[in-house]
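Please go through the protein record below and see whether the fold suits the sequence. Record follows.
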Amino acid sequence: MNNVYETCPVLENDKFILRFVKTEDSDDLLEVYGDKNALPFFNSDNCHGDNFFYNTKELMDKAVDFWLYSYEQKYFVRWTIVDKASNKAVGTIEMFHREPDGSFGHVGLIRLDVGSKYEKAEELKSILEIIIPPAYELFDCDEIISKVPLYAVERAKAFSEYGFEKTDKLLIGGNDNYGYNCYWTIKK
């Protein structure tokens, strides 16, 4: 595959398309990131205090601008998740290669954010089926991790069914040196 920071691939299955985030996604994503019922499932670990709650167009636009800037700087890739049935953006996936921090070495880290309507095992598993297979090569890793909070029952079911396992390892934040818990892992 090509370098993900040179050409971001479009990935899809019968339900969803994952494509690089665009400024025009802001209106649809405002419904996701302004959804108070979805907020508890967003992974904001090590994100300088940002909790990803964007309830105004201005805040959402700034977030999308930051995601585009971060891609240019090769910090992370942010895909928009488009529901094929509605042709609307219903969430995003952020992914990057994380350097070793003592608990996890050279892993791919996924942040999967969807509106509360999509926080269902079947929907989440369908999205995982799109992103996980190419992710190992795209992010040069043999292991992928993602946060699954204790209360995220549907998310835990999806990740477990896909093959992820819960780990007791803490993710040590590079920005704040804090130990974050509730991570799940899958190996190639």
Summary: The two ends are 17 Å apart (CA to CA). The CA atoms of residues 54 and 164 lie 29 Å apart.
